């Protein structure tokens, strides 16, 4: 183990360091200005495909012909990709939220979220470090609703309910679920006790229940990546979605076994699949193809799990 001794560098020194390692910087003031707004550490992740290797290990020096613009363009591609993906997830989140509210309220009434009998019993789990935690979906959403009732002053409908009604204490599901986060939607679906309850919601999106819950979990993970401006390009997914083998009614990948589920491409396919129901006129597919084509010279598709001829799949047509 070593002691970290690297000193902070000025923007001018950062550019000089890149030049000393073989990167061509044609407009130094522009590069310094961009580093002042992006940070060297963040953009350094996009330098990796342009660095040399020795004995299979990436070193600091850049390959011949590497320019600052190539690295910055890759960064811009990833930023645009996040915005595109985040927009698609937003549409799907609203659709999932709507189906949860609609289907469960017609089965169990307006305040189903306050009915503990429809949720699984609290579950104790042992984590890798040996600690024990309790997963209680019902208690979690009740606490969130209570917190929102006392702190959320931005939503007029919440204040209206509090000012007009005192029984039940919580607003109806179509209000309560609207103030939940995406991870609550995922937890509700995995926490429902009766299989028939999740069957209807998952079936609306053309998925088996287990696959639907897995995809929701992955969507929440990627949504958080996008919301925190984390890198999508060349990322290995920490939460890998379950494989969908085939679809009866919607268009899916012709050979799912050949696609890496831990890469971004499989997630893009998931979005394309779900949008067939949630937003059939979505331009997501066309926008993704256009973005990939625009930056194909700086964004290697294989790093995201794209295979040769991917655009010929029916799901992208």
From TrEMBL:
What InterPro entries does UniProt report for this protein, alphabetically? Abi_system_AbiD/AbiF, Abi_system_AbiD/AbiF-like
* Pfam family, any one: Abi_2
Lineage, top-rank taxon, reads Bacteria
Listed name of the protein = Abi family protein
Species whose genome carries this gene: Marseilla massiliensis
């Amino acid at each position: 183990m070593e002691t970290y001794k690297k000193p902070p560098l000025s923007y001018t020194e950062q550019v000089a360091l890149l030049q000393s390692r073989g990167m061509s910087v044609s407009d130094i003031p522009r590069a310094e200005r961009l580093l002042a707004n992006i940070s060297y550490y963040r953009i350094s992740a996009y330098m990796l495909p342009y660095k040399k290797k020795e004995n299979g290990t990436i070193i600091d020096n850049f390959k011949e012909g590497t320019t600052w613009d190539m690295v910055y363009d890759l960064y811009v591609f990833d930023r645009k990709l996040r915005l595109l993906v985040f927009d698609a997830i937003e549409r799907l989140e609203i659709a999932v939220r709507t189906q949860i509210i609609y289907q469960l309220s017609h089965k169990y009434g307006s305040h189903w979220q306050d009915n503990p009998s429809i949720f699984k019993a609290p579950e104790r789990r042992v984590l890798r470090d040996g600690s024990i935690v309790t997963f209680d979906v019902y208690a979690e959403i009740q606490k969130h609703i209570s917190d929102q009732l006392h702190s959320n002053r931005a939503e007029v409908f919440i204040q209206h309910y509090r000012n007009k009604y005192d029984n039940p204490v919580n607003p109806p599901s179509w209000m309560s679920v609207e103030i939940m986060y995406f991870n609550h939607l995922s937890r509700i679906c995995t926490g429902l006790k009766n299989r028939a309850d999740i069957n209807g919601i998952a079936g609306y999106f053309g998925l088996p229940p287990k696959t639907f819950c897995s995809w929701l979990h992955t969507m929440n993970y990627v949504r958080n990546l996008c919301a925190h401006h984390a890198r999508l390009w060349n990322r290995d997914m920490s939460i890998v979605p379950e494989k969908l083998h085939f679809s009866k009614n919607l268009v899916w990948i012709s050979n799912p076994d050949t696609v890496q589920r831990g890469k971004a491409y499989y997630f893009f396919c998931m979005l394309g699949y779900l949008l067939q129901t949630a937003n059939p006129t979505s331009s997501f597919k066309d926008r993704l193809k256009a973005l990939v084509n625009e930056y194909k010279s700086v964004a290697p598709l294989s790093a995201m799990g794209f295979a040769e001829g991917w655009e010929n799949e029916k799901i992208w047509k």
